[in-house]
Amino acid sequence: MRLVTVSTSTSTVLINGIVVPLDIHRDDFNVNIGISKVSGTPTINVQFTMQNILEQGVSAGNVTWFPITALTSVSTTLAGTLTAPAHAVRFLQPEVGDVRIFVIQAGLA
After folding, report:
1. Is the per-residue pLDDT at 54 higher than 60?
2. Among residues of the chain, what percentage have pLDDT more than 70?
3. Which domain holds residue 27?
4. Does 78 score more than 60 pLDDT?
5. 44 contacts 71 by C-beta, under 8 angstroms
6. CA distances from 107 to 3, 23, 32 (A)
7. Could you tell me whether strands 31-40 and 97-105 are parallel, antiparallel, or unpaired per DSSP bridges?
8. Angstrom distance (rounded) from CA 43 to CA 89
9. pLDDT confidence tier of residue 27, bands split at 50, 70 and 90
10. Number of domains, the chain
11. If you placed Cys at 106, which of 27, 30, 67, 78 could pair as Cys (CB 3.0 to 4.6 Å)?
């Protein structure tokens, strides 16, 4: 398993988001997502895409993103799971605050 950790600072507003690519070809697709509010009053929205953002000519800005309902408008420490295959997850933070984001995908060493 590979853990991706991202931290935002008090001066960061993530309008375009932080994107974490996933491996859609894992036989047992399972992604655990954790959000830990460190300080401030940020609200995090987590989205996923079914389009391959690593393909030539494709970028995070020109794919369709879908909300992960359980991880929408998160303003406290919370975890959720994505079990349907997706090419990437994106984290949007429209307010200033300190947040730590954790993404771990089963089967990645």
Report:
1. yes
2. 88
3. 2-105
4. yes
5. yes
6. 11, 9, 12
7. antiparallel
8. 16
9. confident
10. 1
11. 30
User: What are 20's strand-pairing partners?
Assistant: 89
pTM above 0.85, yes or no: no
Mean pLDDT of the residues in the chain: 83
What CATH number does residue 45 fall under? 2.60.120
Amino acid, res. 12: T
As a whole number, mean pLDDT of residues 34-54 equals 87
Q: Locate the DSSP E strands across 1-109.
A: 2-8, 14-21, 31-40, 45-49, 66-67, 78-82, 88-93, 97-105
C-beta separation of 6 from 90 below 8 A: no
4-8, 32-36, 43-47, 68-72: least confident range: 4-8
Cβ atoms 33, 89 nearer than 8 A: yes
CB 47 within 8 A of CB 90: yes
Residues 29 and 82: their CA atoms lie apart, in Å, by 8
Rounded CA-CA distance 85/75 in Å is: 26
